[in-house]
Amino acid sequence: MLSDEDVQTNSYAKRTGNVLEKSDLFGDDCDEINLENEDTPPSKLRLHSSTDNETNTPAVINSIEDHDQYINNHESNHYAQISPEPVPTNFRVQIREFEKRGDGMTAYIVYKVETEVNGVVGYTKQHYETWRRFSDFLGLHGKIVEKYLVKGIVIPQPPEKSISALTKTKTNSDPAMSREVGIQRARQLERYISRLIQHPRMRNDCDVRDFLTIESDLPKAVQTAALSSFGVKKIFKNFQVVFSKMAFHMEEGDRWFEQVQSQVDELDEALRKLYAVAETLVASRRDMATSGEQLGKALSMLAACEESTSLSRALSALTDVTEHVSTAWGKQADIDNAKFSEAIYEYIMLISALKDVFAERVRAWQQWQDAQQTLARKRDQKTKIDLSTGGRNEKSDQLKVEIEETVQKMDQLEQHFGELSKAIREEVTRFDSERKHDMKKMLIEYMESMITTHTEMLQLWENFEPQANNIQV
What ranges does the record give for the region Disordered, renumbered to this chain (predicted)? Predict the structure, then answer.
């Protein structure tokens, strides 16, 4: 843990020390943490938990229950979490159904968003059901980013647009292809909206509430278009950031932020490597499932032409074992993808969101420095005018007013920088206090699924052993 002296080692940290001591944006005290410290207080390590809910409901064409029936469904407690406070059990969002509407290039998928809520301000009923398009989720995200990113809030990111998913939905007439897209995206969207409502600031947001409660269709989210004004503004803003960094390079003087950003970069790199390996693992398991099916067919053909009754019977039994093992590998591949690979990717996206607030802090510092330079330039202009005219004049008085306005603006920017820095510290605390618990849960679920799969395979081979021993030679 860094000392107060370490926190204020540079000039701007000293100047904002009085700001950091003020009440923060959320009304909580600022807790400094070391990401390597294992002694995080238990009060910061509370994790949302919910009762396991497995379903045996038969599959229907527009439901993803059939996809999850062989996966231990722990509802939303496998989602990455940011808030240190546990999610209330009476505020839960699920997406369990979807349907394709329209044909051809006008086709799209809508998702049924079911919300269970009680005791949360602004919600008058306990159950809501709404149908939302993928673009509605992206539109909501755009509104949240505009309101909360400048305040240093880490905003979960929705699934990205996919050309592959767009093609399967609009140009493919095979229902299975659209259903594949719907299953995966419904799972990702449920994770996104569940993480969103976990944050104490965004839980009561009016846009989030409208998204979950208004049954009618929402206005079309134009920000989601590829060449929308929102997208153009984002591109222009990125160019502004690049040029600002060239003009005002921020030498990080706060050791806490320097250490955290270094550790976040290392974590990001490690998770990206792990994600690449996890994707390869999923692909390999699916290849094993496909190869097992082919092996089963070949063994079946061999058993059919075998003259020895005992050997033919053993080959037929081996065919059944191979097919069951192939099915088990296919299920394990789906579990690895849903609970391991996608969970890793969620954290990669969360780290990206964390880097966004770091960049926002740099932008706030650059605006403060720009105001300081503007103030110095106006003061220099006023001094030259006063010396050249030998006294005050109209232009000098105008500069005096502008100087006073610039000083006021500079003070506001300084205060904003201090408050933003403190808010980011709290967001890092939330992120770090849940990261280890989420990683532990992910690894335990992965281990349990592997034990279940291998136990099933072991039982299959043990049952086959007597058949092999009964082959007469």
Answer: 35-55
